[in-house]
Structures are given as structure tokens and as C-alpha cells.
Amino acid sequence: MSVFVLDRSGKPLMPCEEKRARKLLASGRARVHRLFPFAIRIVDRRLKDSGLQPLRLALDPGSKTTGLAISRVGEASLNGEGPVMHIRFLMELIHRGAQIHELMIRRSNFRRRRRSANLRHRAPRFLNRTRPEGWLAPSLLHRVETCGGWVARLMRLAPITDLAQELVRFDMQKMQNPDIEGLEHQRGTLFGFEVGEYLLAKWGRKCAYCDQENIPLEKDHIVPRASGGSDRVSNLALACRPCNQRKAAKPLKEFLKKDPKRADRILARAKAPLRDAAAVNSTRWALLERLKQTALPVKTGSGGRTKFNRVRLGIPKTHALDAACVGVVGEVKNSEIPVFQAKCMGRGTRSRTKLDRFGFPRASMMRGKTVHGFRTGDMVRAEVPAGKRKGTHAGRVAVRKTGYFNIQKPDGSVAQGVSHQHCNVLARGDGHAYSWAKAAPPAPSPAPINPKPQGGAASSPA
């Protein structure tokens, strides 16, 4: 694992090894610049006195997690496939797009309910707002902005010379039907059908939950909308009114707990959701344009090329190591280093009240965000000398007005009721929670593959 190094004026130098960083800090030649990710600043050297080597920052975009890898571009490999990539830093950026989507839906439901139940009737309005060209939903824009923000941050810590992005495109029809080919790509699931007619043919004109026939049937979401289910026809079933009302927003497994075989049959006929693949397809060009704004050369590679490199070199599949395999790569070294993880947590809310399920205030929150010099989201270290919580606790703090805080550790456990008197700030909150993950286990021996990579998507959309 490498440590980021800055010169005395704050300009990035080549990363160094941990052993070298410890010697510089012990001798007084360096100071700690930041902890997450760890960087030092040398007090007796300037950029013009140091030699730089080419560094590439590569990204493997995902819907839930994006992998980033900083590698030194070495000489051409012996196999002639491309240059040798010496990995210096691996990172996984965990997005919160799903949480943003849920919050937007919740806000929309609150607003709709207030307008219909508490105000006089108003005719519905739609299409009354214009959207600029290239508009993205907030949950999608979040993925682009966080990736772009971390690229800019890493460029301030390392002398990046070029960027690389996996410009992956997922064939969602092939994900649902691997045997699809030719003209079938132009024919969707409902080709030649209307939704109602298609569902009647699919479910045999009977209730999917009780098999009753010759009665009025209603459309029902297999995965309820309240649980994130989509309106895709693959998530719709036919149900009689009593079954539809009893199921309501219950999960299918819970509703059919007395008939698990029927539940398994229904889930087998419901296709997997494509939300993650759609998110990656929607943001790939926006992210590429964002990277081009850095004024650095940007290279792209397909998902098939990434998989070709990974399988050929016998590298385990992770988001960070996939990033190191993006583009033309002959060999990858130092793939066993730990992975730095940054989880997007947000920066809190402006709301000063907590709402009930109808959107009405139910409790008040404290007016100030700072308590005894601490804010929710700060990374702290607490040394508790005695008592029930004796020991060392380090992690992300959640402040309380009483002065007794909760500290969430990287492993997910929470130390509750730790006094502020025992806490010391390691880093101020910036909307992320930081941790380190162990290196991925070695991959099995690579299987024989085609001599040339095939096009198309080959990595996970998540």
C-alpha cells in the first residue's frame, strides 16, 4: 500500500511506500497532511527537485459501487498485450443513489397526500417544467458528481497523467433472454400484445395466488411498489380482489408463507430487475464528459476488454481490481494491497423536525449541529479509561445534545453513550465514512480464453 506525498507547497509527488513514510515522519522531514486517504507533506522538498513517473487513474463505474485504481504505467509487458501496471492505490466508492431515490419518492408521496387531503381540489398539472439538455435524476447525478469529485481530490494528492474509464454498455434484453438474437432485439416483451392481454395469457386467466378462474382479475405488483418494485410487466401478476387486498404491500414470501412452492413458482416467472444496469447505461456518457473537463487525456475500454484482462491475468473480481484492468493492459502487479473504502453518507438535512408516515411533524430536532466542538460525521477516536465502555473506539460519530455520543466503527458495531470528554477529532466530516478492506483472495487458475477480447458488457452493473 502506498502513501500519498506532497511537497512543501502542497503539490503532489510520487506516492511512496509505508516504510518510507514512517521514516520521513520519524525524522521530522514530513508532516501528516490528511488521514483519509493518508497523505504526508514533505517540508524540505519542492516539486522541481523530484522526478515524476506516469500515473493512471482508472474507474470501473457501478450503480452501487465504483472502483478506482491508481497505477504506475511501466514498460511494455513481455506478452506484448500492453504496458505493465504497478498498482499504487485501490479504492471503492460506495454510492447512496438508492437512498436518494427513496427520499425523493417519499417527498413526492408526502406532497401528493397534502395536496389531496388538506387543500382544496386542484386540477393535476404535468409537463409544466422544462429540463435542460442532459438532465439526470438526482440519484443518477449523485453518482456522476461523487466520481468526479473523487477524481479531482485524487488529482490533488497524486501527479495523475491520464485517466481511463470502463465505458460499459449493458444489453438489458440479453440479460433477460440470453438466447435473443437478430430481429428479436427490436421486439420487446409486449410485441403484439397489450399489457392486459399479455398478463391474461401469461397467468392462464386465473389468480396467481389462489387459482380462481372466471372472476374479475386485477393487476398486482409481485414486488410491491413500497418495497422498490417497478412497473415493468415482468413484475406484474393477476390477482382477484380479495387476494390483492390481503397481499397489499406485503412481501410475496410473507404473503404466501403457507404455500412456499407457489411463491417460488411466481418468483421464478418474474424477471430480475434492471435498475442497476439502467443506472450505469444512463450515466456512462455523463461521467465521461465530466472526466474530460479535467483536461487530462481520457481513455476508454469496454467491459469485455476488462474481463479479458482480468481472466487472462488470474486477478480476482472486485470493483477496484476491475478498474486496474480497464483498457489495454499487459500485466498487473501489486494486486494484493488493501482497498480503501469511502461510503457516501450525506451531509445531514436542513429539516428541524422528524415526520410521521403522513408527512406531518412528530418531533423536533436540536437547532445547532455542533455539540462541544463535534459534528455528526466527524471521524473521532475515544479513549475510555474505565466503566462499561472502557477501551478504544474509533469511527464516525453521531452527536447528541447531552454530550454522550454514538461512535459507529468500521465493522458496523456502535459504541453508544461515549462522553465527549474522551473524544478526539481525527478528521472533520465530509459526507463520507472511511474504512479499509482486506485484499481480495487469489483468483483460481485462469481458464483458456479466446485470444482476443469480445465486445459488450462483461462486468456487474452494481
In helices, the fraction of residues equals 25-40%
Query: What fold name stands as the CATH topology of the largest domain?
Result: Nucleotidyltransferase, domain 5
Beta-strand segment tally? 23
Q: Give start-end ranges of low-pLDDT stretches.
A: none
Radius of gyration: 27 Å
Can you identify the CATH class of the largest domain?
Alpha Beta
Q: DSSP strand (E) fraction? A: 25-35%
Terminal Cα span? 26 Å
Structure, described:
By secondary structure, the chain is an alpha+beta fold. It has 4 domains: 1-52, no CATH class; 54-115 and 137-172 and 274-346 and 439-445 and 453-462, Nucleotidyltransferase, domain 5, CATH 3.30.420; 192-269, DNA Binding (I), subunit A (Orthogonal Bundle), CATH 1.10.30; 368-430, SH3 type barrels. The protein is built from 11 helices and 23 strands. The chain has helices at 18-27, 97-117, 138-157, 172-176, 195-202, 241-247, 252-255, 260-269, 275-292, 303-313, 319-324, and strands at 2-6, 12-17, 30-34, 39-42, 55-60, 65-76, 83-94, 162-166, 217-221, 236-240, 298-301, 331-333, 339-344, 353-355, 361-364, 370-371, 374-375, 379-384, 391-398, 404-408, 414-419, 423-427, 432-437. Strands 5, 6, 7, 8, 11, 12, 13 and 23 form an 8-stranded mixed β-sheet that branches. Helix 2 runs antiparallel to helix 3 (138-157) and helix 3 crosses helix 9. The longest helix is centred in the N-terminal third of the chain and has 21 residues, at 97-117. The model has no long low-confidence stretch (mean pLDDT 87).
